[in-house]
Amino acid sequence: MFIGVDLGGTNIAVGIVDDRCRLKLQKSKLTRRQRQPEAIIKDIIELISEVIKDYGITKEEIKAVGIGIPGLFNPDTGEVIQCVNLNWKDVQLKEPMEKAFGIPTFIDNDATLAGLAEYEAGAMKNKKSGVFITLGTGVGGGVIIDGKIHTGFNGVASEIGHMIVGENYYDCNCGRNGCLETFASSTALINYTKKLMKEEKKETIITKIIDENIDKLDGKVIFEAAFKEDEIANQAVDRMVKYLATGIVNIVSVIDPEIFVIGGGLSKAGEFLLDKIRREATKNKYYRTLSIGKIVLAELGNEAGIIGAAMLGKHCINM
Amino acid sequence: MFIGVDLGGTNIAVGIVDDRCRLKLQKSKLTRRQRQPEAIIKDIIELISEVIKDYGITKEEIKAVGIGIPGLFNPDTGEVIQCVNLNWKDVQLKEPMEKAFGIPTFIDNDATLAGLAEYEAGAMKNKKSGVFITLGTGVGGGVIIDGKIHTGFNGVASEIGHMIVGENYYDCNCGRNGCLETFASSTALINYTKKLMKEEKKETIITKIIDENIDKLDGKVIFEAAFKEDEIANQAVDRMVKYLATGIVNIVSVIDPEIFVIGGGLSKAGEFLLDKIRREATKNKYYRTLSIGKIVLAELGNEAGIIGAAMLGKHCINM
């Protein structure tokens, strides 16, 4: 058995996963990210103790703990380098976890681990190479090459949200301009829709859907309006898709994977979004006649984070 | 012994390379690319016969023939998919080669093979992962992951010249806008320098170096002027470097290799260029405090093409 921890900006979710990627039991609580890292780490430890107890096993039956974090981890030091959403910087995470349970603990980026879950048990199963792209508050990635997650020499691979794909009207949190994340995240989509609603002075059904309360504007609303052929919504979605397709074709130009898997909140727009992405990516191939990797939706839902984290543990102890 | 063939837009170069990457003998002739593919293939076959004869061995001693082409190859069909510079499209190359000598023949992109040569005997030696970037008429790439050249699922990986890194004032040959090649190739550098000379109305020593003959303008001249602190030349070089650094950091965001190796004609500008690239890439990291791969100059010169092609043969028959 393995423990998988999905540490998010909103929730901490912990689960027990068996050798065959099946999530057996899951518990979660609010992250309350304004707290100190120590308080959050204490909650993770408590949740792990609870799932072990509730599932009725001993901690000796747990082979490894895996943790997905919304940021970057340094395996050499055991420290979380940075999690912008949690306001963490240089936080020791591996040590307190291993001290608490005496179980080997492994940590990696959450999008990378969701990619690993899709590889082990979802849309990338039996593929040799693939890239998982998560479209949420930010844009994250998980690169699988030859059946292994690829974190790179300095641990900063799979950070495809920070690939520069054009010039944008606002800067990225990372301080640069043109990052994929500023075009293709839900934050970017909402931001650009607001801009259009203000500047274009066109009728849009969005106003009605959100009861004229702009705070209610989210990715779901925009896709609902786009699906109903609303002009403003489609303009915003098409711009998002254009740059996402550029990002996909850029990835092709480096590693040309067998498959792209689209996950995260915006992927709930399903085939409507996927069709647009496929059309735009096909239009943007640099060699028009050649094939590029298949583009599909993620198969695992929210539990991808826990399963991927657990599978990280499995991969690491088997290495 | 292995035969390496470097099929370029200007020259066909053929050499004999031993198991330890040493080029023993080399012959070349002009490609005369306006000719039919059959005539060029005939020349390759003749050159191979000549080097075998001149080196005084029999063809039975040759274990494999490797050919680097300035374009894309489909290993499933044995056909060259496209070589824009040679005006080749769907040309069968493997079959006539194997028919002529009865020796297994392997073909790949020339920049990819130059990268393989740097991995086997040059700047990437003993590195686990690296990306070779050639700055010539176009921009090519060779991606090495886990000690293997990475050509991707559809054979279009390592085509980093077609990674989109911004918006440009002219389109790429591939029909799109913003490809790295349109910013960082010698063609792009020359093109932009001409534009500046026309529009900026500034004094520049370039005019003197080229005897007021704009046809003499090339990468070497521009770097010579930039080194002498000419404003126009530095403006052009800095723009080129800015986008090249964006391309490098984009590659980091996908695969984060251990090393980047800069080759091709423009790399003759040496440390002057390298310093600028390193400075700009460091400035452009998305996580400021983190390391990115080393950036160095290619160690092999023109012979990288032949050596890499020969090593392709070695890799393939050992697989």
UniProtKB/TrEMBL annotation, chains A, B:
Magnesium recorded as keyword: no
Entry-linked InterPro entries: ATPase_NBD, ROK, ROK_glcA
MF terms in GO: ATP binding; glucokinase activity
Pfam hit, one: ROK
Keyword Transmembrane helix found: no
Keywords: ATP-binding, Kinase, Nucleotide-binding, Transferase
GO cellular component term, pick one: cytoplasm
Any GO BP annotation: glycolytic process
SUPFAM superfamilies in the record: Actin-like ATPase domain
Family: Belongs to the ROK (NagC/XylR) family.
NCBIfam families referenced in this protein's UniProt entry, alphabetically: ROK_glcA_fam
Name of this chain's protein: Glucokinase
